[in-house]
Amino acid sequence: MYNRIKILIVEDEESISNFIATTLKAHDYTVITARSGKEALSMIPSHCPELVLLDLGLPDIDGTQVLQKIREWSSIPIIVVSARTQEDDKVSALDLGADDYIAKPFGTSELLARIRTALRHSAKSAPGQNLDIFELPGLKINFDKRQILVNDKDVHLTQIEFKLVSLLAKSAGRVLTYDYIITELWGPYAVKDNQILRVNMANIRRKLEQNPAQPRYIFTEVGVGYRMAEE
Fold it and tell me: Which residue ranges of the chain lie beneath pLDDT 70?
């Protein structure tokens, strides 16, 4: 099923690289590997992988620099796979354009699920895809009509609430950081105050969720941001 999907593993530790490569090959992915940041940057334009698994602790240049350089010209899905577990590291990588972040050690099922999510999101973002409607069980968002239905009933959201829900829905399955959301909603010079987001999210959950304390649609990644469930 995935034999035409090529994944680049950027990892300097041979044992980890081999483990990931073996796992991916067993699930019919094509695998190429790089042991340094510079090697990865040279391989991407020549080998055209569909997804990159990127370690941050590389021997020549930091993985965040690799991430920045790739994002200067490409929107290829990038999943950071790193031993750095601090929230600041995760937030920084996501803000720089990573599609996801997995902390080492990780399970193979989690890795494969994150890869599938990133690839699905990439396919939905491709030109020609219909992004007018987003649906989850009991929830329907019509972006063009600016309409939200919960169990087939119209729900009124304020302009900011609708923008927030739409932003998350269009990146369903991905974590959007607090700063990214604030910049997208209020502009690059807005004060990075998470409290205003929390207030809006509390209102949104009261309107959309059957039980706001146990949300089905929008999840909080503590200290990082919010994520919309996938279709």
Answer: 1-4, 123-131, 189, 231
CB proximity list for 120: less than 8 A, separation 6 or greater: 173, 230
Q: What is the Cα–Cα distance from 102 to 85, expressed in whole angstroms?
A: 9
Q: CB count, 10 Å around CB of 73? A: 9
pLDDT digits (tens, 9 = 90+) for 189-223: 677 778 889 999 999 999 999 999 999 999 998 88
What pLDDT score does 121 carry? 75
